[in-house]
Amino acid sequence: MRDKFANAMREAMKAKESRRLSTVRLIQTAIKDRDIANRGVGKDPVSDDDIMQILQKMVKQREESAKIYEDAGRSELAAQEREEITVIKGFMPEQLSEDAVRELCQSVISETGAQGLRDMGKCMNALKEKYPGQMDFAKASGMVKDLLK
Which residues contact 78 (CB under 8 A, 6 or more apart)? Predict the structure, then answer.
């Protein structure tokens, strides 16, 4: 993954794509920050799964910011946030459809033997482990909750 970001940065520099370049730099900075934090507590460097979680968090932050900018009448800033979302999503695997997510939730529930809401954490951990970056876990959490009721 790190090589992907380095190559994307070189390509963006050559093509003079300032938005893409700045977004890739933001991604690399977030990864370095996590590396430094992990080093401080004696953990391993950031894995590809961790990078996927960082990218998901960055997308979510930008979606929230874009909504705030839209509500405040700052459409140019909202457009900028959406451009960054597009760049970040370009590094993530394709998102699963809602039907596919529902099926995966059902299969994880049966695999883990979940009986009720108290087993929800077990199901969500299994989903996050098996499908990092491939679904919106907030929506998946709602589906798991509905299925466990």
Answer: 65, 66, 67, 69, 70
pTM of the model: 0.73
- CA-CA distances (angstroms) from residue 40 to 28, 34, 87, 121? 18, 10, 30, 28
CA 67, 37, 125, 87 torsion-angle sign: positive
CA distances in angstroms from 54 to 42, 57, 101, listed in the order given = 19, 5, 21
CA distance 62 to 103: 28
Phi-psi region of 117 (alpha: psi -120 to 50; beta: other; left: phi over 0): alpha
Q: What does the block give as tokens for 36?
A: 């430094």
Q: Can you tell me the distance from the alpha carbon of 43 to that of 25, in angstroms, rounded to the nearest whole number?
A: 24
Q: Report all structural domains of the chain as residue ranges with CATH numbers, in order of start.
A: 2-89 (1.10.1510.10), 98-148 (1.10.10.410)
Contact 114, 126 (CB under 8 A): no
List pLDDT tens digits, range 86-122: 999 999 888 888 888 889 989 998 888 888 888 888 8
109, 148 Cβ separation under 8 angstroms: yes
Placement of tokens 């070189």 in the chain: 10
